[in-house]
Amino acid sequence: xxxxxxxxxxxxxxxxxxxxxxxxxxxxxxxxxxxxxxxxxxxxxxxxxxxxxxxxxxxxxxxxxxxxxxxxxxxxxxxxxxxxxxxxxxxxxxxxxxxxxxxxxxxxxxxxxxxxxxxxxxxxxxxxxxxxxxxxxxxxxxxxxxxxxxxxxxxxxxxxxxxxxxxxxxxxxxxxxxxxxxxxxxxxxxxxxxxxxxxxxxxxxxxxxxxxxxxxxxxxxxxxxxxxxxxxxxxxxxxxxxxxxxxxxxxxxxxxxxxxxxxxxxxxxxxxxxxxxxxxxxxxxxxxxxxxxxxxxxxxxxxxxxxxxxxxxxxxxxxxxxxxxxxxxxxxxxx
Length: 335
Known about the structure:
The protein is mainly α. It is built from 13 helices and 2 strands; from the N terminus they run ααααααββααααααα. The chain has helices spanning 2-30, 37-61, 70-87, 93-117, 122-141, 153-160, 168-186, 188-198, 200-205, 210-236, 248-257, 269-285, 293-315, and strands at 162-163, 166-167.
């Protein structure tokens, strides 16, 4: 079964990669200016943000849970760190990166406690924290925006800069993807997540702690969202209450499009990253196709909804057959 599942995922990832390539070619044929340097930079950056959040969300989905608070965590950490840069303008970028990870992990820990220890269903727990954290962003800022001229140059430097010609946000996503891939495949705690999501009863019988697994995945999801909070505020040089508002659907859709099961136990980092790329290509191409802003929302929403619905339909499983069907034409033998 495990080998068959891996083969199916690899086939799905291959099909998705080809689909993205065909979509990209069709867009370039229709709008050659899409290959402009600035737009490619925007595409890589857009993918970077979505991929980081998607792989964090994937770890939660692997356990059969869901995290709706990532965008709010992003907004809160971005606002907090932007305000901190005003107080400590000499602080280096790495300090903001580490603090963003720690803040996000702390907020994710609250989700983990609510789910693992209190027993609140993940969708309810994270919906509640999503609302609370978004409200705290407003309280923290007083509803004001923090603009570029109010942030320190060191704060903005890393996220706005490039390395070997590639945006640092994109490279940060590559590092995050590689790190989580290694963790899930080569560390026991990562493999436990797949085991728990595949069969919770068997996992508990094997000594895998439900509470530890659920706490861990929410901490990871929060940590990457906290990292994105810093990168978002520094890259766009603005922090505001509504930052990333409504991105929850795109994050989850990227995972589902990439083959991550909403029932848990199945999915890969490569698949989630490809799902994020599909959405990033779609979103960045629509302005070049002369589709107005309101229609863009409708098109993106419709495509994502269709992809998620198709995946949900594929997730429907027939009841497993324990015994081979018996020929009704032949009466059962009597011992």
